[in-house]
Amino acid sequence: MELTIKVRRYQGAYFAPYITDFATDTEAGCIFHMHEDDITPEGAVCFADALTQQARRWRPRPPDMPRGSRIPITMEMRTDMAGRCAIVIDDRAEGIHYKVRAGLIRQHAGDVITGSQSERSPDWLRVPARYVVHLKAS
Asked: DSSP string spanning 34-96?
């Protein structure tokens, strides 16, 4: 089953951002529901992509495994992101830090993302990563 994070924007009366979980036969994950004032269309696409990439490095803890510690997660809005860079995630054992291009998301909406992730972190564990680099044709 593929893990996917979605970000949905809504018009109309303002509401505070919130998160719901979902599961189908082919994918599972969560949806961040946000008012259009809190995240731009480009921000929604970038966050969905970045959060999905990051989430695929994590798995739920098995039922017989004790809960882990809560991981601190922070988000910093930056005006000096290089080129077309939108989001950089520094995902380490001691914490996760997001650097985000200013203007993509409002700070309080970013706090909903980081807060919900930190709250859920004791029930998840990182999976080993494997990187493969191929020789370049010369």
From this structure: EETTTB-HHHHHHHHHHHHHHHTTEEEPPTTSPP-PPPPEEEEEES---TT--EEEEEETTEE
